[in-house]
Amino acid sequence: MTDKxxxxxxxxxxxxxxxxxxxxxxxxxxxxxxxxxxxTKDLVADVPQDEFERRVHAYLLDHPEVIxxxxxxxxxxxxxxxxxxxxxxxxxxxxxxxxxxxxPVGGNPDGNVTLVEFFDYNCPYCRxxxxxxxxxETADPQLRVxxxxxxxxxxxxxxxxxxxxxxxxxxxxxxxxxxLYQVRGAVDSSKVMEVAAxxxxxxxxxKADMEDPAIAALLAKNLALARxxxxxxxxxxxxxxxxxxxxxxxxxxxxxxxxARHRP
Length: 264
Known about the structure:
Elements: H1 3-30, H2 32-44, H3 49-62, H4 65-92, H5 94-99, E1 105-107, E2 113-119, H6 124-139, E3 143-149, H7 155-169, H8 173-180, H9 189-198, H10 203-209, H11 213-228, E4 236-239, E5 242-245, H12 250-262
Parallel strand pairs: 2-3
Antiparallel strand pairs: 1-3, 2-4, 4-5
């Protein structure tokens, strides 16, 4: 037997008691008649452990939907709890999310609604969102966009994020940001510098600014903020009290923005 097979078998044995507990909990919740008529009687009779387990096992075989329903309820409750926690974080850290002075801003800086994007330059889904974001900005002159560099796909992504924030020091963040997404293939050091020259950045100054500790600190802050908001992939969007995880189309993004505008 392979180590992987052994691990799976061990995990199965470890999960069995958990499933048993979940199933019994659902048994009480979903079949009160059975609980009152039989289970209470069994408790009074002090049923031995092996007999109790045999009866539960038999019940689960006859009613496998109980486990499915129990797991659904558990997942729903966990999801609700996580959403409550995320909303609390979003409220407590709204200043950092929407108005961090170190985060680059696009669109209308004085717009009446803010869309925050977490992204990685080597994420193909983020690349797909660039024209969608541009269309959203063009169609909505009151849209303010906050860019959160979120390099999670390796060293090249971190390098590209540092270069983008260094470009911000030269006043060319948005141009550089969009140009990086036009690069074919993986964004690496040579392509980053090529794009920098193309959009008119001072390359030597860019390289020096990339070493600024403040840039590394901002990336670390963005990563911690994304974790707190349960954004663990790219792209991720925040507007008002909402979080949207993953790529979407223009219509859905505009609906997301409008919801935030009407319910900030």
